Amino acid sequence: MSGPIRQVTEAAQAFTFSRRAFALSAGQIGVGALLAGRMAWLSVAENERYKLLSESNRVNLTLIPPRRGWIVDRAGHAIANNRTDFRIDLIPERVEDAARVLADLARLLKLDPSEVERITKELERARGLQPVPVAENLDWDRYAAVVVRQPELPGVAPTQGYARNYPAGAAVAHLVGYVGTPSAEQYKESKDPLYLAPGFKLGKDGLEKALEPKLRGTPGARRVEVTARGRPVRDLDTRRDVPGQTVKLTIDAGLQEYAARRLGNESGSAVVIDARTGGILAMASMPAYDPNSFSDGISRLEWGMLSEDDHLPLTNKVLQGLYPPGSTFKPATAIAALRAGIDPERTVYCNGGYQLGNRFFRCLGRHGSVNLHRAIAKSCNTYFYTMGRDVGMDGVAAAARQLGLGAEYPLPFPSQRYGTIPDPAWKLRKYKESWRPADTLNASIGQGYILASPLQLAVQASRIASGRELMPRILADAPIVGPMLDVPQERMAMIRSGMDEVVNGAGTAVRSRLQLDGIRMGGKTGTAQVRRIAGGARGGLNVPWKYRDHGLFIGFAPVENPLYAVAVVIEHGMSGSGAAAPVARDLLTYLFDRPKAMETLEAFEKQWGGDLNARMAAKAEAYRLVRQAPIPIATPSPHPEATPPAAGGRE
Amino acid sequence: MRLGELIPAPIAQLPWHILFLILAIGGFGTVVLFSAAGGSFTPWAWSQGIRLLVFLGLAVVLSWVPMRFWEKLALPGYGITLAALVAVELLGAVKGGSQRWLDLGFIRLQPSEFMKLFMVLAAARFYAMLPGAEVRRFGGIWPAVGLIAMPAALVMLQPDLGTALMITGGGIVIMFLAGVPLRLFIGGALGLALFVPIAVNYILHDYQRNRVLIFMNPEADPLGTGYHISQSKIAIGSGGLFGKGFLQGTQSHLDYLPEGHTDFVFATMAEEWGLAGGVLLILAFMLLIRWGMNVAARSPARFGRLAAAGLATTIFFYVAINLLMVMGFAPVVGIPLPLVSFGGSAQMTVLICVGVLMSIDRASRPKPGFRRLI
């Protein structure tokens, strides 16, 4: 290579280099400027936004569920209150190793396998921040055991809060309902973040549900600095919750509990109404569930037991149970007759029944000549058949409606069934059939199409007792509504005196007269057929329980100046006088002479095998044993290999 | 010159301003790591500080190595490192899993780190040997392309997208400075524009593709891979002008910022020191790179010029890729911020680069004795 050429090339190369190095440097400085500019953009121009994001990272706002308002009885005794509760929840989004965390929790909290199974299932279905309850109502030791290990258990949220408490347990189940964790659907509907707060419960049934807005209160909030994994570092500030309002009921807590206990092992309901104000003093439906354990979330086993029970512990029979009122309807037919201007002294001759065309409608006996008073006392069908026919179905239905049957009342319950008070128009609408005179006869004695709930029967009793169109009330601050019935007071008194005779004279419920000095109960028994049995035979002890007749009773006391009205329905109790009237007697006795009533009850409970809680526990234990017992193995089927080969030589 | 008389010449001759600059950057990095550990020298700040001094000493030692040595070592060193990359790949295949390092018993070596250095030296050596007229011909291009492609492909197999990009970038910068025709670079850039979408879809690993796609739209996946970028931007953005104050960063201390002591250390710094700290740090790095480019400009030898500019650009790549990444301008590719991020590999590579740069710088200066005579 010759020198000069190389010289030129090298100079050219050096020139190229310095030119391109300059470009490179310029590029580097450009990138540097871009970086500084980008940083200035982020930290100055967008500073506000990122500061906010950083704060919302750092600060975790935890809602503190408000303490639920109490539900108290007329005297201020708690029907539903709150107790301190230690609980553990899992926040699905923050759980890292669900299996390990669950195993640790099961060990620390001594969870039984069915609980672990439930949590696993709920955890699989749950998403995001909706907490999955692990355990509630923990004792301090087990709670503390989890709290100290919280850093190793991501997603585990221990909280110390309040839980709903129903001191009377199952006795108030159907009255107040229960509370529970909001469902995913409820959250989606409301979008209220409170619904996600661990420990927050809302009313799921009964008054708890209907009075939810009043009882809920306003949540508090706690601002906590948390790490990315959700571990709290320090508290920043806290706003107290505002507890929900206390709701006062017209209920007498003592009577309510007494009624529930007195119903014993029967499937029945009892309602007591203050005959001066319409205030409901007790409304019990038994058997019932324990709202305390319902509010904690019940196990599948418990649910299975309740839903399989033929005594329907999950149904509020006071509002949801509909029964043919049977003879308890007769006072309504009597009032219809009085309203139609029929003379109460008019007599009807009972020769054992009523002939309608070629059908003979039976009475329970041959009562001879009966007037209104005697007809009620003897429960004479013939008399009421006659009255029904004379007044006509429209008149009977109008009287029944005025007594509160077939109506829905302005009460804060999620649902009431209003039953049926039939009339010709109704039948045409429903069955496209015209009303027949036989229908009137059946309706006049409370059979046929007529259906009423125990609450309606109690309202009927309260209206007969007071002579007023009393509206039932459950909230202590609800207005008292009670215009006079359009039947003169002295004629109402005739009906009451007929009912007095039922209990205290030669009537059907003489065994249930009050054992009190100077206080008499008036009433009317009823026995309603569950199914029509050929030949008019009654469903007594000789038929299976579910085909036996219902026993009903309506009553009031004292007869001269009624203070209280009562209705009792015992499903399949066979007769009103045998099953329902004694319960009504004891309920009224409780109101006048508490020790005496308690004595009666304690004697009964000794027979039944313990008080309500003891019997419910025994029942649950028995159910658990049956369900968990290994299913007896039927004759084992032989394995194919074990079968001896078929002997050869067969054709 | 009193100082020259008191201090031995070899010491006085050191480029002290650069050593101080590096100490300043590394020292600030140590302070940031101290904060990232929640105000503790362990586990990061202490060992990082010690390593900084050790590697800085190594750089000073390397600065006394004559430049000719580097020139001679360039191709053999490249060959050995390439062999080591193959060995890593084979080892990974035998063990059934990818790995990036060779375990020599006393130390774990990442050949890909050394390749960043030797890529530059080998390419510089190649163009220094090549007759000037050949540079613009095919014979001056394909060997360089081969030199780049082999290690880049091996590192991609590891898979380490960030390092592969840096190796490729280092080689291409040398080609550019050596005078390879511009139209090739323009054509290459166009080709890349076509190739990238294909690469994203077919060549990258799932997690790499994810990172690239998330980078395009980080908000689409705030809790997954986009989380890194979002949280990093929150940390930088919430710092404001002067930051939340030393030890006051919430994003880093409450663990919202992932990798706050390694790849995202700049975000940790920016949260506490704000725009002021960030601009100072960027400025310090630009000064270091500027110095490297000046060393290149001063060097009379072609190898020295190309190598110095390439090494300076390697440092630039580290800083630029990392900062673009933490500020949401580049996908998360796992390139640390040298001298600041916790970890020895990048620290060592950069300080070796500085050592070689100092050695090139020394070669371009007049002999000390001669200078004193003047």
Automatic annotation (TrEMBL), chain A:
Provide the Gene Ontology terms for cellular component: plasma membrane
Protein name per UniProt: Penicillin-binding protein 2
User: Recorded GO terms, molecular function?
Assistant: penicillin binding; peptidoglycan L,D-transpeptidase activity; serine-type D-Ala-D-Ala carboxypeptidase activity
| Localisation per UniProt entry | Cell membrane; Membrane
**Keywords, alphabetical:** Carboxypeptidase, Cell inner membrane, Cell membrane, Cell shape, Cell wall biogenesis/degradation, Hydrolase, Membrane, Peptidoglycan synthesis, Protease, Transmembrane, Transmembrane helix
Q: Which GO terms describe its biological process?
A: cell wall organization; peptidoglycan biosynthetic process; proteolysis; regulation of cell shape
Tell me where in this chain the Penicillin-binding protein dimerisation domain is found.
Answer: 64-235
* Gene3D superfamilies registered for this protein in UniProt: DD-peptidase/beta-lactamase superfamily, Penicillin-binding protein 2a (Domain 2), Penicillin-binding protein 2a, domain 3
* Record's bilayer topology term: Single-pass membrane protein
UniProtKB/TrEMBL annotation, chain B:
Q: Does the keyword Cell inner membrane apply?
A: yes
What membrane topology term does the record carry? Multi-pass membrane protein
Its recorded reaction(s) are: [GlcNAc-(1->4)-Mur2Ac(oyl-L-Ala-gamma-D-Glu-L-Lys-D-Ala-D-Ala)](n)-di-trans,octa-cis-undecaprenyl diphosphate + beta-D-GlcNAc-(1->4)-Mur2Ac(oyl-L-Ala-gamma-D-Glu-L-Lys-D-Ala-D-Ala)-di-trans,octa-cis-undecaprenyl diphosphate = [GlcNAc-(1->4)-Mur2Ac(oyl-L-Ala-gamma-D-Glu-L-Lys-D-Ala-D-Ala)](n+1)-di-trans,octa-cis-undecaprenyl diphosphate + di-trans,octa-cis-undecaprenyl diphosphate + H(+)
Which Gene Ontology BP terms does the record give? Answer: cell division; cell wall organization; peptidoglycan biosynthetic process; regulation of cell shape
Specify the pathway.
Cell wall biogenesis; peptidoglycan biosynthesis
EC number per UniProt: 2.4.99.28
Q: Where does this chain mainly localize?
A: membrane
Provide the GO MF annotations for this entry.
lipid-linked peptidoglycan transporter activity; peptidoglycan glycosyltransferase activity
Record GO cellular component, one term: plasma membrane
EC class, as a word, reads transferase
The entry's function note states:
Peptidoglycan polymerase that is essential for cell wall elongation.
What is the protein name given in its UniProt record? Peptidoglycan glycosyltransferase MrdB
Q: What is the lineage of its organism?
A: Bacteria, Pseudomonadati, Pseudomonadota, Alphaproteobacteria, Sphingomonadales
